[in-house]
Amino acid sequence: MSITRRTFGALAAVTLAAGSVTLATPAAARTEPLQLVAQSEGMVWNAVAADHGRIFVAGPRWSGSTGPALGLVTADGGVAPYPDAAWNAWRPGTAADTAFVNVNSINLDGHGGLWVVDTGAPSFGGDPLPGGAKLVRVDVAGNRVTRVYPFSSDVALPRSYVDDVRFNGHTAYLTDAGRPGLIVLDLRAGAARRVLDGHPSTTAPTDRPIVVDGTVVRGTDGNTLKVNADPLELSPDRRWLYYGPLSGPWSRVPTQALDDPGLSPAQLAAQVRPWADLPPTGGTAMDHKGNLYFSDLAHNSIARRSPDGRIAQVVQDPRLHWTDALFLDAHNTLWLPVPQLDRAAPFNGGISRIHFPVQLFRLTLER
Q: What sign for the dihedral angle of Cα 325, 186, 103, 145?
């Protein structure tokens, strides 16, 4: 596997393959707002996190990705298993509770933790294996797993696809893109519960197809692909959770209500409100001002929704074909993994049409 990466602080690009190094001119880098950071001939990464000069990447097993489930981009042009080989050594028939079965997303909490969402199901649309669906915390200073939060069978249901996570103090909120619903996890007690299970706000509508390059994306059954609760973000003041199916629209619900286990399903549902009618998106990130950045799958672009509801295109490029989980770092830089998931085998009659190399870009935003 060869990697092309760009250093964090410099504008020169470094191509690393088989021991050779080639530098791009700084002038060329300055003219490109969309900067290529890394590219892979085998690993299909749909998630990225950047921390103090280190780049973490992850990708789902069902995409046909080769290499580690979670990896660290290395200076020699490779991707090293992270935090170690054992956590990346799962194979059919082996224990699913102490290894990554199918990583769908990663996130940093700003307090030394890299969090890994494992769907626990090796195939797209399959059932989570016993102990497989889990949230894992990795200490990035010590490079070791410090906590595993397994989801029981009444939280990660048959056909559940635990998708993404956001944090509010000692509480984590996760979306279930397979069986529509949200998961609320008490990080101190380790207790998780499903909420808004099957609610319209977490369920993909039938009249909003996912269209990429003018083509409707279809699932393994040949029908229009439907992805339930998928993207989610917290308002800067942590009062609201915004979420929706991949195809939209988005809703919002008070975090105070989510955090109250005493509310009945009907009482919680009564507090859900429409929020934003966004198009199909592969990934999102929200800044401290409440600007929502999202990948517009239909137009190979990144757009911004301002707090007042206005939407503006930030960048459009044919290389941004199904940009997935965005990551916004402390320097106001957007990291953009481009896994081309609509071209993966499950959505193309079992034949992968992914165009290698798979790429990772970054985009510095205005402050």
A: positive
Q: 279 near 297, Cβ under 8 Å? A: yes
Mean pLDDT, the chain, integer: 92
Q: Tokens for 353?
A: 């049409």
pTM of the shown model: 0.92
Q: Quick one: DSSP state of residue 318? A: T
> pLDDT tens across 116-164, in order?
999 999 999 999 999 999 999 999 999 999 999 999 999 999 999 999 9
Q: Is 93 helix (H, G, I), strand (E, B) or coil?
A: coil
Q: Contact at 8 Å (CB) between 239 and 253?
A: no
* AA letter at 187: L
Q: Give first-to-last CA distance, the chain, whole Å.
A: 36
pLDDT of the residue at 26: 41
Selection from 178, 133, 184, 181 nearest residue 160 by Cα: 178
Q: Any idea what the Cα angle at residue 215 is, between residues 283 and 119, rounded to 5°?
A: 40
Q: Over 50: is that where the pLDDT of 36 sits?
A: yes
Average pLDDT over residues 63-70: 96
The Cβ of residue 231 has, within 10 Å, a number of other Cβ atoms equal to 29
Closest by CA to 125, choosing from 166, 71, 164, 163, is 163
The pLDDT > 90 percentage for the chain reads: 89
**Quick one: which of 165, 204, 209, 172 has its CA closest to 188?**
172
Average pLDDT over residues 36-65: 96
In terms of Cα–Cα distance, which of 340, 344, 280 is closest to 39? 340
Task: Round to whole Å and give the CA distance between 348 and 162.
Answer: 23
- DSSP structural state of residue 342: G
Q: In which residue are the tokens 């369920």 written?
A: 203
Token representation of residue 75: 């200076």
Mean pLDDT on 73-102:
95
Closest by alpha carbon to 223, among 210, 232, 212? Answer: 210
Q: Single out the residue of 2, 37, 35 nearest to residue 20, CA to CA.
A: 2
- Cβ-Cβ contacts under 8 Å for 265 (sequence gap 6 or more): 195, 196, 197
Contact 9, 291 (CB under 8 A): no
Q: What is the pLDDT of residue 76?
A: 84
Residue corresponding to tokens 């529509």: 180
∠ CA(144), CA(82), CA(5), 5° rounding? 135
